[in-house]
User: Fold this.
Amino acid sequence: MRVVLRASLPLFSCALGLLTGCGSGGGGGGGSTGTTLGSAVAGLSADEAAAFERGRAVFLRRFKPSTGLGPFYNATSCESCHSTPTVGGSAQVYRNFYLAMYDDAGTNVALPGLPSAVVPAFGAGTDFTLVGGRARIPEEVNGSPTVVAQRNALPLFGTGLFEFVSDATILALTDPEDLDGNGISGRFNTDNGSIGRFGVKAQSNNVELFTRAPLRNQLGVTSDPFLGSGGTVSLAHMLAPQVSTDPNSPTTDDDDVPDPEISRDDLGDLIAFTRFLAPPTPKAFTPEATLGEQSFEALGCAQCHVPELPTSRFGPIRPYTDLLLHEMGEDLADNLAFGRPQASSLSLPNTKKEFRTQPLWGVAMHGPFLHDGRAETLREAIELHGGEAAASRDAFLALDAASQANLITFLEHL
Assistant:
């Protein structure tokens, strides 16, 4: 067995193992049957399980300025924003963070002096002085208005298993021109020319990119690549490359701690923790939940929240997502663009008005809901669906009270 996430192993062997899914396989449902929330997926090798547990310790580690925190930051550990209802989860709305970008020749770019769109709440600097405990965001930059949005932390349970969903599976679900005429035109996003799976806008292709970005942007902790482009999931399908961070490039900052501020071994273990974090175990369905599932299908909710996806290693998983972008209406649009989406005559050439279909497994355990946590309840989240989801939302609102309650009961059992 060659798949262990320690940098002391040959990178080629590690990358090959991850892309081919070698090793002891798991069963159906992502190996989640009977697992405790926050534990590892079933079917790991001893080396992978050990890397997962070491990665948990890194995930819990509290960074300090002397160990690399900052100079700008929003949190002091990964667990700070991923702790509800347990380690690896989401966060309450008080943990929300801001994104801000301005338009430069038609392209959204980060504010001057910041490494990304993430706005730090704490840290050094004069351009972003603290006002009331939160960084001041300028209303405009170079004559262009600043676009500001909030994000609620994404739950990570089962997320890493999306690395084992093939490009072919995702491509088969796309319908960018709505050829079937159902009002839903899901399309993929790309990350350096490869199909995205992770993030609110499916802007990251693999767990390494999904991990290194918040290390730098939320904690100010720099890193060198672990696998870099060798960790790319599947192959690009003749997609036009986009201009974004090179996965083979180190991240740096100008504080007093030498870069990289996390060791390559620790980074590999942290990747292992996210990659192998098990999805939630669904509850046994009640009769009401079964009726709710039938309504979920009948209303068209499952056209985007696809119940089951095959994986190359862990068998079928049931995340209730198609991993595609969908336009969700003007009220939810944040007008921030990440990645380069699949071409469509029905959509903008960017992701300003779109979001990836959020997985629903375990959804009732980590409210608030939606990308910015604006919905306090599942009902409110449904009611806020617009755009491509408007027809399903309206059909839900037309149900009698008992049928609506059954559908929400179904969601609470996932």
